[in-house]
């Protein structure tokens, strides 16, 4: 074992307990943040008052996210180990477009999914599915931001960008919306290449979960049939069937 590995300290149990207790609230607040953020981007008809309310809500939630990181840093046994294992959450406090992906971290920590093996498999399917949606949404948003100021662009609102993103991920390619700027096309290439991997992982995860579920159902049916057969074959029946 290397010297570096020997020096690593596990996260404090206090941090793990804190994360267990705050998993549901932080998961819910992350969903609220995502909804408010998308609304502020997509709705161009918001009044100034509505915009201020959304910005205020996003700001309050951002303060909550920062406070959560600060508390965990304060109670952890090793700040370096905390940042090594929770680095993405820290980076997402700086890069807002990464913040929606932190939903996956909170979802992973929800205690409900740890109650049984079937729930853990369900958690994996949900995680992969949500990651796919967030991946397409983030890429589509970045393309829209890169395209909307160009005079020749036809991706001029977030709805068109999301439609383009999903049609690109599905390899349909209707051609009704296409990026025209160099930055937009660069992001589109990233979506195409990453989409192949994401679709492959998503399909494999869902198929594996369904196959495992069918296997467990088959085993349960076999067990029930064996019990029914055992109940039907009683000692008295066996004696009656013996020749005198």
* Secondary-structure arrangement, i.e. CATH architecture of the largest domain: Orthogonal Bundle
Class from secondary-structure proportions: mainly alpha
Instruction: Give the biggest sheet.
Output: none
Share of residues in strands: under 5%
State the CATH class of the largest domain: Mainly Alpha
Whole-number total of structural domains = 2
Approximately how much helix is present in the residues? over 70%
Q: Helical stretch count? A: 10
What name does CATH use for the topology of the largest domain? Helix Hairpins
Total number of beta strands:
0
Radius of gyration: 26 Å
- One letter per element, helices H and strands E, the order comes to HHHHHHHHHH
Poorly predicted regions are 1-6
GO cellular component, one term: voltage-gated potassium channel complex
Keywords: Ion channel, Ion transport, Membrane, Transmembrane, Transmembrane helix, Transport
InterPro entries: K_chnl_dom, VG_K_chnl
Subcellular location: Membrane
